[in-house]
Amino acid sequence: MTKRLLIITLILLALGIFSTVVLAAPGNTTPNVTITVLNLPPDGILELGVGESYTFDILVVSDQPFKSAMALPAAYFPGRGIFFHGSDHASQNTTALLHLTVTGKGSTAELPNGANPASINVGVRFGGLTVGQTFDFGVAVP
After folding, report:
1. How many CB atoms lie within 10 A of CB 44?
2. Which secondary-structure segment (H or E) carries 59?
3. DSSP assignment letter at 15
4. How many helices (H) and strands (E) does the chain have?
5. CA-based angle 135:141:142, to the nearest 5?
6. How far apart are CA 49 and CA 78, in angstroms?
7. CA nearest neighbour of 137 among 93, 79, 73, 81
8. Is there a contact between 85 and 101 (Cβ–Cβ < 8 Å)?
9. Cα torsion angle, 74, 50, 137, 90, sign
10. pLDDT in tens, 122-140
11. CA distances from 117 to 40, 48, 94, 95 (A)
12. Across the strands, what pairs with 99?
């Protein structure tokens, strides 16, 4: 019985050491990821007319292939003055150009500072690791 327990303990110890070696192997380094919104409004406020749309271009570049990259919009006051047209994603690559479109649907004059605070949230997934970044701005519709 103790001999079996000793063998099982040695096997578990060997598996623990092997998994540590695999995690520390050079091929499993942390990826270097750059996420850039190519056309954020320079002053942080995008001005749109009612019915006018604007498309944000988001560039994701990685030194290792990612499983997926996704861009999601968020508005502080959802549905008030602006409307986002869904999300965008890419998979199995080292670069991706993602797009998010926002449309002015009504006045934001009654909101604080006359704009709806919004953000673009980008996540890049590499198996068990996810790299993310958020870009904040406001959208004003007169």
Report:
1. 12
2. strand 53-75
3. H
4. 1, 7
5. 145
6. 18
7. 73
8. yes
9. positive
10. 999 998 899 999 999 999 9
11. 13, 14, 31, 28
12. 57
Nearest to 104 by CA among 118, 93, 94: 118
Give the largest CA-CA distance in the chain.
80
Pairing of strands 53-75, 33-37: antiparallel
Q: Which amino acid is at 33?
A: V
Structure-block tokens of residue 70: 């996704």
Residue that the structure tokens 């003055």 belong to: 81
Q: What is the spatial distance between Cα 116 and Cα 125, in angstroms, rounded to a whole number?
A: 29
* Alpha-carbon torsion (74, 75, 77, 83), positive or negative: negative
Provide the pairing of β-strand 116-126 with 53-75: antiparallel
Instruction: Give mean pLDDT, residues 23-41.
Output: 80
pTM (2 d.p.): 0.79
Q: Averaged over 8-20, what is the pLDDT?
A: 46
Per-residue H/E/C for 100-135: EEEEECCCCCCCHHHCEEEEEEEEEEECCEEEEEEE
The amino acid at 131: V
